[in-house]
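Please, structure for the following, as tokens.
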Amino acid sequence: MTGPRQIRPLLYITRREYRRERPSWWLRFPSDAGLLYHTFHDHLYGGKARALAAAKAVRAKLLSTVRQPHTPEGYRVGPHRHASGIHFDVQIKRDGLYTAWVASWMQDGRQKKKHFMIGDMRSSSKAKRLAKEWRERMVRHGGR
């Protein structure tokens, strides 16, 4: 019997220390919707070690909640094409990780958007369907 799958310590996490940038850890996570990015700056998290710990905590949360693109053989593939005006969004906040499908459209020359959160009461496929329907309705009726 095998135990839990071991992951490499810095899987999807890269150290960034460039001359004109603040030092940080960069999380790039592959999902069905494409790459999800977030930067963990040392000065915001109280140092290099704490920023890395925060990046690892978010990565662990993403590994358990966000579906990654795989072929049946287990090799990663690129992101699937998404519908125009619909995209997947992950917001990383101090109190948690929020995932949603976002519908966007133009109204009076300005871009508008509406988030459809994914959670216990709404699956990712349902949120995507609602976002798509909302966008079609807004485009058809001029955003009203």
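The chain is about 25% helix and 35% strand. Residues 71-82 have pLDDT under 50 and may be disordered.
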